[in-house]
Amino acid sequence: MRTVKFLSLTLLMSIICTGMTFAQQQRGQKGGKAKATQEDRAAQKVEKMKKTLDLTPEQVKKIQELQTQLAKDQEQSRAAAKEKRQDMKAKKEAYDAQLKTILTPEQYQKYQDNQGQGQRKEKNKDGAQQGKGKRDKKGKK
Known about the structure:
The chain is mainly α. It has four helices and two strands.
């Protein structure tokens, strides 16, 4: 009787471990894929439109050109936004550096502690916005 229980338990554990290993491999395969380029995504979208809308070859050609241009425009917009964020960050750091020379160390520390309290929201690890103010026991500010 003990042997049957032991074998059953061993078999069950093997099945669970195999399932977990398979799930991790599947997740790894999805994450290991190379990202499609803008042109690849544009081509996929055109192909989908071609099938669902029954496009003529002339329409396909025009839509491909349009999609490719849109993809390039979007990439330029992303790059411009990234540059703007970096520029704003550099300006803020320069401001803070100048402010630090004007304020006393205690004032500057107080300024940093009060920076954005209750107004600015930061994202936590889950991506949800979270206020920086103190909360009472019921979760209210």
